[in-house]
Specification:
The structure is a homotrimer of 327-residue chains. With 327 residues, the first copy, chain A, is α/β, with parallel strands linked by helices. The first copy, chain A, contains 12 helices and 10 strands. In chain A, the strands form 2 sheets. Chain A has a 5-stranded parallel beta sheet with strand order 1-5-4-2-3, sandwiched between helices. A 5-stranded parallel beta sheet of chain A has the order 8-7-6-9-10. In chain A, strand 2, helix 2 and strand 3 form a beta-alpha-beta unit. The first copy, chain A, is globular and about 55 Å long. Chains in contact: A-B, A-C, B-C. The interface between A and B is medium-sized, with 27 and 23 residues. Chains A, B, C: InterPro entries: Asp/Orn_carbamoyltranf_P-bd (IPR006132), Asp/Orn_carbamoylTrfase (IPR006130), Asp/Orn_carbamoylTrfase_sf (IPR036901), Asp_carbamoyltransf (IPR002082), Asp_carbamoyltransf_Asp/Orn-bd (IPR006131). Chains A, B, C: Pathway: Pyrimidine metabolism; UMP biosynthesis via de novo pathway; (S)-dihydroorotate from bicarbonate: step 2/3.
Chain lengths: 327, 327, 327
Amino acid sequence: MSTLHFGDGNLQYDGQGRLRHLLSIEGLRERDLLQILDTTESFLSIAQRTVKKTPTLRGRTLVNLFFENSTRTRSTFELAAKRLSADVLNISASQSSTTKGESLLDTVDNLMAMQVDGFIVRHPEAGAAHLLARHLGERALVVNAGDGQHAHPTQALLDVFTIRRLAGPVEQQVVCILGDVLHSRVARALIHALSILGCPEIRVLGPRTLVPPEFASLGVQVHHDPRAALPGASIVYALRLQRERMESHRLPSLDEFHRRFGLTPERLALAAPGALVLHPGPINRGVEIASTVVDGPQSVVLAQVEHGLAVRMAVLSLLAGVPGHED
Amino acid sequence: MSTLHFGDGNLQYDGQGRLRHLLSIEGLRERDLLQILDTTESFLSIAQRTVKKTPTLRGRTLVNLFFENSTRTRSTFELAAKRLSADVLNISASQSSTTKGESLLDTVDNLMAMQVDGFIVRHPEAGAAHLLARHLGERALVVNAGDGQHAHPTQALLDVFTIRRLAGPVEQQVVCILGDVLHSRVARALIHALSILGCPEIRVLGPRTLVPPEFASLGVQVHHDPRAALPGASIVYALRLQRERMESHRLPSLDEFHRRFGLTPERLALAAPGALVLHPGPINRGVEIASTVVDGPQSVVLAQVEHGLAVRMAVLSLLAGVPGHED
Amino acid sequence: MSTLHFGDGNLQYDGQGRLRHLLSIEGLRERDLLQILDTTESFLSIAQRTVKKTPTLRGRTLVNLFFENSTRTRSTFELAAKRLSADVLNISASQSSTTKGESLLDTVDNLMAMQVDGFIVRHPEAGAAHLLARHLGERALVVNAGDGQHAHPTQALLDVFTIRRLAGPVEQQVVCILGDVLHSRVARALIHALSILGCPEIRVLGPRTLVPPEFASLGVQVHHDPRAALPGASIVYALRLQRERMESHRLPSLDEFHRRFGLTPERLALAAPGALVLHPGPINRGVEIASTVVDGPQSVVLAQVEHGLAVRMAVLSLLAGVPGHED
């Protein structure tokens, strides 16, 4: 899975080794990851202007194909596409012909017959975006906006972009990821992206039920005590705690979790001075992170959102074969 | 509340006394109200052209943030924004992250991180738009598209614009407002706007349960008999009767209301010759107003809708700091 | 109903005999049908370009007024309008003021007051689009996107366009329509369009309950045996089998239908060599048609979808008074 080769086994690349889909951080070459991050810089400045548009994808059509609700993700991709001047078609599952028994691939084939140029897909089943990419090949681009346990590679891209931009070279960071690492594809994709970029030390922190010892095989340090995990960390990344986990008895209670692991000002003080606090959102204030930390000076959660828009503009333009933005 | 001062107490103005949000008619200076009405004139002509667009807000992003369904209001603002060439993001509450427990302000902060330029907000709770404006300050514009009892100041603006344009100077009108005045913010905002513009005589008409004597303190004449309220009125404004009121026993029945107060051709004949009939919509035909009056020659309800679009274009462009439309 | 005259009785034409609405194939003049098909050719090439847009309807506003869910139809019209550079307003019934008791015509009048240029209407009741066209006259264009039993004339237009483009002149085709002809307006509209264009032989095939002998009065051959109906057919058109029909006991079972009438490779081999297979979608694979036939070399179902987009662009531009696309 986490190979750096491409070819038949790596759906993200076409026969010439060009990035054609963004499905997962796994399998992404370092130089493509770096190109996305560099292109993101060029798009970041656009959002600061009064006229926040470029003609990059004028006349192209992108489909937001969402089989799960996610206003935040849908809105970011919609805005990214619109600011690139693309036409956007929003299709949500509850309205779609799939309710008439049509399959995902039939729906996609119909949209392809209308000459759409790409799909941004969110689907509850793991592998849905890969299925689409395999089916479409070079005919249209596919961006995975979350499949299965709500993973989407653009999240990891915006995370490492934020770290690189606001904390400095990834090679110099000590990163501590806090929370339900076991069920978080955000965490796994982030660990992959950090590894590709040469992060020297990655720690994961949480209760044994959510951070099992097997994680050490990913090349990370496993911690169950904040006092051991936080010292020296230049980046503290708090994960969203899925309330559903409570029902599976992996957690005693939200209060208990907050008391033992929640990122409070006191715990943050254990980390390196000026350590940055990241969170993928939406935030459970008072659970995985205290409100005062979210709103405090070390928090860069809104910068993550801002960077997320630029990352998506970069990804869409690169996959569409337009190398970047020139003023 | 209804002060003409600005500053800390008046969220609609920035520190330099420039109109930055449109939250309520209360607190709006006469000269700003007049500027909106004058700017509306310039936008009204655009709708008559084949190409109904201006580049006024090209490259800006406006968010329709609707926590209540209102196709009519949402559509008007969406069309207004599109005709100004803005990008529009529609977000409805049922889809939004607020269902994941995220607060209104977190949602807005996330959207601000994507550099959106303004919010058109509809929310069931009174004060939601004010909360947003207080939070955002000069960072983005806020237009109140209805909070609490479905008030929105652009309704009062289009009403006085319609009166001024089709009946003449507001200073020369006698206005009779008919119906559930007690629960109508439309009525209250209209009374304020008419007062600011120097309307010499405003009458309110309805049963005692819906038009209590205390209204006299607003400077209006209180009437319970159409035969006393209508003679001499140059403007008859029928309010939508909320069927919900029936349940609170404030009304015997819709039929009874129509029989005693409904604007029939006979009652309209009591008003001044050629008196104009207005209604904010949607109309309950046969309840507060007879169908023949809605569709009759004195009705200007569709002109109100037309003017509503131009008013919203004017408000959005003025709040965005673009003073108006030049051909 | 199926007259070739125009005037009072033919709502599709204005007083000068210009096509103003597209409501049904019945009543459409041959020369207008041919003009739509010819204009479609010019729009088909646009979809092949990188920039898939023309400024044809820039500054016009079209409303997708959908009182029934139909992602496919809505998306095609939305894309068609956007590629013509029109602004599109999507209004679905569940959100609309009609739930507040406002009538269809009141909703339309309100939208007209906002100077929209046309309506694409889908409504569960037969005649809804006609009602709108009668109400609007020359003030705005109306395209029937399905009323009652899910008929929409653009389907028949894309069908005959596909036949003409991929099989050759309609005058030389033998067409066999298979399935629930009785309840299918798609079938009826197709028969009309084929007749207008001089198709010499049209056959309908299905069980007696769904293809009654009375159909012969439409000038078609009625068949109940595939071995008699298919030989010599150059076009085989499979209709979607409405599962609802099962409940009315008109069909024993889906399996039984497939066994006796379903378009299998064996049955298709009875038709003329290289006969084309069409289907209006969405497809019930394994019911009216076998999956291998849908995906086989004779199937042109995706070409139908592609042509459908170009047909809708042609219809919208012609009804808006813009004669076509010039490069």
